[in-house]
Amino acid sequence: MTNAAISIKGLRKTYRGGKGQPEKHALKGIDLTVPRGSVFGLLGPNGAGKSTLINILAGLVVKTSGQVSIWGLDQDQNPRQSRAAIGVMPQELNLDPFFTPRGALEVQAGLYGVPKSERRSDDILELVGLSDKAEAYARTLSGGMRRRLLLAKALVHHPKVLVLDEPTAGVDIELRQMLWTNVRKLNEQGMTIILTTHYLEEAQEMCDEIAIINHGEKVAQDSTANLLGQMDRRTIVIVPDAPIAELPDSEGVTATLREDGSLALHYQSNATSAEQVLESVREADIRIRDVRTEEADLEDVFLALTSNRSDDPPADDQSKPRRGMHRVKL
Ligand SMILES: Nc1ncnc2c1ncn2[C@@H]1O[C@H](COP(=O)(O)OP(=O)(O)O)[C@@H](O)[C@H]1O
Ligand SMILES: [Mg+2]
Predict the structure, then answer these.
(1) Where are the domains of the chain?
(2) Which of 14, 21, 23, 52 to mutate to test the pocket of ligand 1 (most atoms within 8 A of CB)?
């Protein structure tokens, strides 16, 4: 496993319950290998255990059991070296309000033992777009600027692996753009990137490989392309000539009417042919004005992998926006 950026075996975390609260099994024995050089997505709904896993990597949360190696260095045997190999941009905005961005980077560099001659605070501030705020107090920075500073802090010791925990949750478009541009740039320079997200589109767009976790368990890990290819679910969308009175009813075809009046027909291509799907439309006396197909996306993959597995209600109960119109959130 020495070629892995991160290697995790049997990782468990049980949070002790406080005052009458039961204990919480946040990670239930996770095995995970992150290839060097990848942009790796850790995908899962709120409460899945993503931050717990990230914080264990960062040395911020103490694992209950299991093995963690970062860049081939066992976290228990080589705590200092393994920590030096990783930089984490946390989900929480935890900044000392009395430091300026430049000051915060210098302190961070000091903590990691980066010699003065190797410090690149100004370059890093430039990279994240904070040059003109280098001497402003952290408490005067906007939420977006604080996030930029958190990314900058994660980079001061030139880590091999950069971890971003929900970097785009609630941020504006400009900041998202900055993050993705930098993620791509740093990855091209050889840095392994791990990002957690509950935005499927984001994982699909940014990541070479994805692991899906749910309720503290890994439910899938594969290349993004394979995960999508694994889904045999096809959709044909029909725009009818006139409003539809009766939905087609045919074995192997699930028909749903969409808000815009179009008809979505889902089927498995290994069991049902497109011809059979169209036949069911004709049988229902629907005249076709237009027709198109839709690819399976990660939402389908996720639903297929996690259905029948939930043992808790979802932490985030927001109803899903329609695919293609908004970013789809798990
Ligand atoms: N410090 C803690 N004490 C107790 N439970 C926690 C603590 N941190 C997280 N949890 C619980 O562990 C589970 C996983 O949380 P978390 O790792 O933050 O998930 P995610 O980042 O995927 O949303 C959740 O049920 C959460 O409530
Ligand atoms: Mg989290």
Answers:
(1) 4-85+159-228, 232-295
(2) 52
